[in-house]
TrEMBL record:
Residues 155-232 form the Signal transduction histidine kinase internal region domain. Gene3D superfamilies: Histidine kinase-like ATPase, C-terminal domain. The keyword 4Fe-4S does not apply. Residues 131-162 form a coiled coil. GO terms for cellular component: membrane. GO terms for molecular function: phosphorelay sensor kinase activity. This is Histidine kinase.
Length: 341
């Protein structure tokens, strides 16, 4: 639809330019038959011939020859075309105003006349090639942007699909830890996991989801993860209750919560995990804090795929418009994410 509108805008622009060019000589002429003949012979006929040269180059020769590495053929074609146009112009001018015999060779030399006319016919050729070049550059930029957008969607989809099995893997680890300790809790956890997976599979297919729905998902995941914790770990979270108009990309913060439960829990030492989400009219801010218990080199569960995933998604979704910062201070891991609304 947009391409159709652009096509008609271009046609309208061309028509208006030629209407103006053809109108000026007539408007500025005297209201006499002789004046009209002058306008016809010395303005309208040359303009019409310029228009023929322009559109032959604009619609055909530029694309077929000039941009197809056949520049020699392009030059030869235009030389023949210009000679033909000069011949037609001279013939029509002679028809309306026969050139009297000038005694003593008065008037400009014919070579000078032909030279000036040749230069005048070069103008529409240059304009046609220049305009076609500009249009090709614009079209190329549009195609690059469309390709980049398609690649962006593909990359985001890939990252989201990558996150789902990662999330499922971590959840199964939680359930596995409960099977021997509390079979009833394990059953309840499996039921909760099924609800979470339903959200993952069906509700996250759109580019944006309500923040309220995403927060509900985060709360369920936190409560599910708390089931395998001991009394030595304290978990706090402070999430707002936004209305449905506030939306975010799905599964944007889950990696941070997974990371906290993976690296912030110890069976022997006191542990603390805290999450907070705030928002205003301009941005959404997620803050997380947890005690830091670095994984050993032999522990593959600490591969860090979640944080890399989040970093890649933020770069794709909000290039140069987001804030992502992590640091370890006094044995605590801190993370802050800010995204625009």
């Amino acid at each position: 639809m947009e391409a159709y509108k652009n096509k008609w805008r271009t046609i309208f622009f061309h028509v208006m330019v030629w209407v103006v060019l053809f109108s000026f000589p007539y408007i500025l002429s005297y209201d006499t038959d002789q004046a009209f003949k002058h306008v016809l012979a010395f303005s309208w006929i040359p303009l019409f011939l310029y228009m023929v040269v322009f559109y032959l180059n604009y619609l055909y020769l530029a694309d077929k020859l000039f941009f197809s590495n056949q520049k020699v053929v392009f030059i030869i074609s235009n030389v023949v075309l210009v000679i033909l146009m000069i011949g037609i112009r001279e013939g029509l001018t002679e028809y309306f105003f026969p050139r009297p015999e000038r005694e003593g060779g008065s008037g400009p030399p014919r070579t000078m006349v032909y030279y000036v006319q040749t230069l005048s016919f070069l103008v529409p050729i240059v304009w046609a090639v220049a305009l076609r070049t500009m249009e090709r550059l614009i079209r190329s930029e549009v195609e690059k942007k469309e390709a980049a957008n398609q690649q962006l969607k593909s990359d985001l989809q890939h990252l989201q699909y990558q996150l789902q099995p990662h999330f499922f893997f971590n959840s199964l680890n939680n359930i596995y830890a409960l099977v021997d300790i509390s079979p009833e809790k394990a059953k309840s956890t499996i039921h909760s996991l099924s609800k979470l997976m339903r959200y993952l599979l069906y509700d996250t297919r759109t580019e944006l989801v309500p923040l309220a729905m995403e927060i509900e998902f985060l709360v369920k995941y936190i409560e599910l993860s708390k089931l395998r914790l001991t009394d030595k770990t304290t978990v706090e979270y402070h999430f707002p209750k936004p209305d449905a108009s506030v939306k975010v990309p799905p599964l944007l913060f889950i990696s941070l919560i997974e990371n906290a439960f993976k690296h912030g829990v110890s069976a022997q030492e006191e542990s603390k995990i805290m999450f907070e989400i705030t928002f205003d009219d301009a941005k959404i801010v997620f803050k997380g804090e947890n005690t830091d218990f670095p994984k050993t080199h032999t522990d593959e569960s600490g591969s860090g795929i979640g944080l890399r995933n989040l970093k890649d998604r933020l770069e794709l979704l909000y290039p140069n418009k987001h804030y992502f910062h992590t640091e370890v201070e006094s044995g605590h891991f801190h993370v802050t994410v800010e995204i625009p609304l």
